[in-house]
Amino acid sequence: MTASAVNVLLLEDSPADARLLEVQLRGQPYRLDVVRRLSEAVPRLQSHRYSLVIVDLGLPDSTGIDTVARVHELVPSAPIMVLTNDQDSDMGLSAVQAGAQDFLNKGASTALLTRTMRYAIERKHAEVLRARLVHADRLSSVGQLAASVAHEVNNPNAYVFGNLHLLKESIEHWDIAPEDKADALELIADCLDGVQRVTRIVRQLSSFARVDDERSEPVAINDVLRDAVALVTNDLRHKARLDVDLADGLLPFAGNPPRLVQVFTNLMINAAQAFPDDGADDRCIQVRSYAQEDMVIAEVLDNGAGIPDEIKERLKEPFFTTKPAGVGTGLGLAICTEIVERHHGTLELNNRPDGPGAVARVSIPVVRAPKAPPRPRAATLPRLPAVAPLRVLLIDDDQAVRRAFSRVIAGAGHEVTAAATAREALAVLRDREVDGVLCDLEMPKMDGAAFYQQLSTVSPVHCGRVVFCTGGAFTPRAKKFVEDNQAPCLQKPLDIELLGQALTYWDQQRNKRAS
User: Fold this and answer.
1) What is the Cα–Cα distance from 281 to 285, expressed in whole angstroms?
2) How far is CA 269 from CA 229, 350, 445, in A?
3) What are phi and psi of 9, to 5 degrees?
4) Distance from C-alpha of 321 to C-alpha of 274, rounded to nearest angstrom
């Protein structure tokens, strides 16, 4: 028997029929285990991984389609082939409907037998692939929805933030009783804190807008873990205490942050769902990171019941799940394993050696690719003190955003011209020169990318003066433009610090032109 032999479990109570099958498969790349009862098959199916299960429909302790249904329930990821003496094709079709991939009458030729076995295995592989594609499509849809939500939330968040800042500055100059002024400023500070919390939540949610993005970049595992923790904190707070212990100084590695956020989000949710619903108040999920030789290790630990030995080896199988019907698809850990392996890492699922509970350990090597050059983003814009008055063109299709940004920029002593569309802005730039252009990336009819392309023809001198802002660049066109273009791009809502950085950037460009 070769090392690549396919493991097959045969449920057959007839010694003669089992012997015939063994003879037919002699010399073939199959290793056959035989049991005579369904009760004998259950522990084997729970502790072994079989590439094919062949089922007789007339076992002593189970007959007919019930046998197929029970095997499919135990190992939904394994192909099932039915062998029967029943010449009624309806029985075979019923078996397929119950979860089998194919059926064959006993006594068939060796060629037909092995072909049917091979086809059953390939059909199941195709089914798994289809399920993964559907799951990936759902994730992509969730990502698109998250990006759309981010865009729609960030626009009102932007002008609320700007107007609150202006209101705060105004109150500071009001001639009112000191205690009234202090109360008003405290209310404004609370509102500003709320806006910033919404901003953080939306940005963390936006990570799922890029789960289909295969781009690799330097990854800091602690940033990934913090984003994952932030996403699940609200869901877990009533189920378990969440402890986070992240080591300092961990080296980066090449990878895809949104996909890794997906992995650790799934692992934490799985840990929470594994707790019994007993209302115990000592339930705890720990998230920790540390270095081990040339590896970065990230672990999710719980103090639950742990992993039963009989299912430990099967947890990563597609469709295998210990959750009730409707709670999980059984694809989560299989997809997590695939994502980690694409990062040249490993995902291990074990019981904790130091006490009750389980531990999911992700190990990823830190030396895989040279560090990518930094892309121009908000963080690359210089931060300097207040600058001399600038002429600024503001382009945004949201009237409230235009008003708020215009007030803030003009309040700092700069001249502001506002345009509701990219075409209106191009008309302005044909007739006059400005020092800086603040342009929304996502606009109807002509978006920021199209505006930039037209600007290179209409007024190319302004191309180096454009700073884009976005509430969530979620279209493929916008994504590619942000990645490929050298113009800075700021995330809404623009706080005062970011607006100040934009003003400083334009002032630097103006000084370079003057020199």
Assistant:
1) 12
2) 10, 17, 41
3) -105, 125
4) 11
Q: What is the DSSP letter of 53?
A: E
Q: Can you tell me whether residue 370 is helix, strand or coil? A: coil
Contact (CB, 8 A) for 437 and 404: no
How crowded is residue 407: how many other Cβ atoms within 10 Å of its Cβ? 16
Q: Which amino acid appears at position 294 of this protein?
A: D
Place of tokens 């509701």: 420
Mean pLDDT by 10 residues, the chain (515 residues): 72 90 88 90 83 88 85 83 73 78 84 89 80 61 62 75 80 83 82 74 57 68 89 79 91 87 87 72 89 92 78 54 45 75 89 85 75 40 62 89 84 90 92 92 86 90 88 64 76 74 88 85
The DSSP bridge pattern shows strands 80-84 and 102-105 to be parallel
- Strands of 415-419's sheet in order across: 415-419, 391-395, 436-440, 466-470, 489-491
The dihedrals phi and psi of 341, each to the nearest 5 degrees, come to -65, -30
CB atoms within 10 A of CB 115: 14
For the chain, how big is the Rg over CA atoms in Å? 31
The Cα-based distances of 273 to 276, 280, 313 in angstroms read: 8, 14, 19
Per-residue pLDDT of 198-223, as tens digits, reads 776 666 555 544 544 556 788 899 99
Contacts of 146 (CB under 8 A, 6+ apart): 205, 206, 208, 209
Q: How many residues are listed for the chain in this entry?
A: 515
CB 232 within 8 A of CB 261: no
Instruction: Please name every residue paired with 292 in a beta bridge, in sequence order, or none if there are none.
Output: 295
User: 315: Cβ–Cβ under 8 A, 6 or more apart, which residues?
Assistant: 307, 333, 349
- Cα–Cα distance measured from residue 302 to residue 148, given in angstroms and rounded to the nearest whole number: 34
pTM of structure: 0.45
CB atoms within 10 A of CB 49: 12
pLDDT 10s digits, 227-265: 888 878 877 877 888 899 999 989 989 888 888 888 898
